[in-house]
Amino acid sequence: MNENEKRKYIKGRKLGEGTYANVYLGQLRTDPAVLVAIKKMKVQREQDGIAYDAVRELKFLQELHHPNIVELLSVFNSKDQNLNLVLEYLPLGDLESLIRDTDRVRYGAADIKAWMGMLTRAVWFCHDNFVLHRDIKPNNLLIAADGEVKLADFGLARSFADPGVNMTHMVITRWYRPPELLFGCRSYSGAVDVWSVGLVFAELIIRTPFLPGNSEVDQINRICQAIGTPTEDNWPGVSSLRSYAVPAEVYPVPDKKAWMDRFGGVGAEGVDLLCKTLVLDPNKRITAREMLEHRWWRTDPKPTRKEDLPRSKDDGAKKMGADLGRRPGAVEDENRGSKVARRLDFGAK
Amino acid sequence: MAAEDARYRQSSQYRLWSFSPVELATLREKSNALAKASISERMLSSNASRPASGANTPDGDATPTLPEFLTPTEEALLVTFYTSEVLRAGNHAGYRDAIKATAAVFFRRFYVTNSIMTYPPNDMVLVTLFLANKAEANFVNIGEFANKFGKKNAESILAGEFLLCQALRFAFDVKHPFRALKGAVMALRRIGGIDDKRINAAEHRAHEILCFSPLMTDAYFHYTPSQIMLAALSLADRGLVEQLIADTFHHVSPPGTSGPGTPMETGDAPPPPRRDTKSEDKATIIGAWIRDKVLGTIEACRDMLSKELPEERREHWASQDVFAAELKPLRKKLNKCRDPDRSNLLELHRRRREQARIKAETEDDDAEDRGAALADDGAVFGDAGPRDTKRRKVGKGLEDPFGGPL
């Protein structure tokens, strides 16, 4: 069975090399026109066997089949017992490269609406299947040949916990991490992903990370200044969270006008949706499903057709290689903390 | 509802691990036959080569006779016995229900396509439990894990892990009926008019059944989580399931057909034919047909679960008499017919890695990882290095022979 799967594909050139995996271009043996990406996990550390990241990624990619979620086509192991994940080939890079290339890539509200629509559907589908992604960020949003956005990297995902079962709060790359996780909350919901979606939305509009904190404390400060200080008034119960600590100066939640000044490019309805994703209290934050029902999608301009969306000027395949080869944004055990810190400094000067 | 069904059909549980009873039996027979053939071949070839190296064999058994092999039925009995060991080990370690259940399902799936004569069930008990922890998002350290079961030898667990992943076809998501039970309880409370004590008692009993009966039988291969849940609830309190079913199909009828005194309350009689409009007649007929199909499936699943009620754990599987009469002879038989090449997972793992290393001489990017592993192994195993291959296999004793932690 394994040999059959392996023989189905021809492994080609290396697209990227990361701490976590090497990514190769591949093609179907029976039809070489069909391209795939082969993600070869690096040799596992002997001590705990197969890496948790790999188990998680496989567990969810095996189950989630949706146009906006990267498709797992096959799995096989090479002789040295390395896992090889065969994924659909996504040659047009990721949202991060589009956002950052301000010189060469121009896009507008209709394009943002199209990308956000695809992202929101992906997140809704995860949540509807009781899966938390826990690492949503622009470089985990890859783009297929036809312009479709695909949510990738399920290395930090997990199923919704049953009531009473704790989860780790050390997930989601810091800039996209919601306040409840920064305050050490161990029991949370899909609202954590919605916050990340909101920050991707903001970043698409202003074309730079909205809250690029350089430490957890700095991240909380930035949230307080930009979105308001979480207090018992706007978030009942927040002060009893384990690591609740906010700057002495209490910042008010900014009014609509302040949001419009900065994010008005997507119109009043777009700003309304953005504000609802960035509500401090996770219980009051909009859900992915409610996002899909929001009026913004139905107001002008209509979302751009995916074929007509702006494309990256960079080598998208290389970008895919780099994105898939990276270790997921944050990890739960502390001895890997140093690696994570380094990893999170990407893009910073 | 249709969407939910469609979604279930996309799950690996349905795509890869659902079979009809005939399909499942065929797969097991095939695995049994394949194992017999390859073990025979290995035994004969090692027997044939022996006389060349020396005349006497210690047991004086140099004739190339083959042992008696386990039949598929005997294998099935042993698999079920070892499934009870998986659950026992999970209890011993105090793991959550979902982890124990996932481990048991992994174990049974593994032995659909592998024979118990090929890979040692003793070892696989712990391997499945270890991987189930990972699959259910419970972080465990391999050293601590091995310690819990009085095993010095964590490596044999890791050695089997990859094998298990492959046999599971790298699908680690198991859909359990536990949440469905919580949903059913909420639905029962919503119906109203049912004594809360009765609901609680039924939930408790059904949960107890779900933690044992479906795992010890082939229920997960044949039925969906909701069917298994309803079967368990029906064993706990048949009337409640009838009410749930009646309530569900009551809603299928278009509004207006069911006035206040619907005859559903007793739950056992289908609604009497109504002399209403044609479309309503049709709705009732369709509803009744699906309802009967659902009831039939639940009944069949209930029959299956009733063969392994939770009491069996104590009265049957943990009974010394049963063990001596039914299982011991089979284990003796197993010891004689097990695969000489694969019964030691550690040795097998080492050999495969060695082969891979020779083959992949060019790629050496794992050098630093190995150093780290070595240091850690030293700590766990005292003086023994990771390459020490003659570590003896510890029996299945789940109690720690060395007492508690220092």
TrEMBL record, chain A:
UniProt keyword annotations, A-Z: ATP-binding, Kinase, Nucleotide-binding, Phosphoprotein, Serine/threonine-protein kinase, Transferase
GO cellular component assignments: cytoplasm; transcription factor TFIIK complex
Transmembrane segments: none
Annotated catalytic residues: 135
GO MF annotation: an example: ATP binding
Residue ranges constituting the Protein kinase domain according to the UniProt record: 9-297
UniProt keyword annotation of Flavoprotein present: no
Domain of life: Eukaryota
GO biological process: positive regulation of transcription by RNA polymerase II
Keyword Kinase attached: yes
Ranges for region Disordered: 300-349
Reaction catalyzed: L-threonyl-[protein] + ATP = O-phospho-L-threonyl-[protein] + ADP + H(+); L-seryl-[protein] + ATP = O-phospho-L-seryl-[protein] + ADP + H(+)
Binding site for ATP: 15-23, 39-40
UniProt family annotation: Belongs to the protein kinase superfamily. CMGC Ser/Thr protein kinase family. CDC2/CDKX subfamily.
UniProt name for this protein: Kinase-like domain-containing protein
Originating organism: Echria macrotheca
Automatic annotation (TrEMBL), chain B:
Record flagged with keyword Chloroplast: no
One Pfam assignment: Cyclin_C_2
Coiled coil segments of this chain: none
GO molecular function: cyclin-dependent protein serine/threonine kinase regulator activity
Compositional bias annotation for Basic and acidic residues: 273-282
Compositional bias (Low complexity): 253-263
Domain (Cyclin C-terminal): residue spans on this chain: 176-306
Keywords, alphabetical: Cyclin
SUPFAM superfamilies to which the protein is assigned, alphabetical: Cyclin-like
GO BP annotations listed: regulation of transcription by RNA polymerase II
Chain intervals for the UniProt region annotation (Disordered): 45-65, 251-282, 351-406
Keyword NAD listed: no
InterPro entries for the chain: Cyclin-like_sf (IPR036915), Cyclin/Ssn8 (IPR043198), Cyclin_C_2 (IPR031658)
Composition-biased stretches (Polar residues): 45-56
Protein name as catalogued: Cyclin-like protein
Lineage: Eukaryota, Fungi, Dikarya, Ascomycota, Pezizomycotina
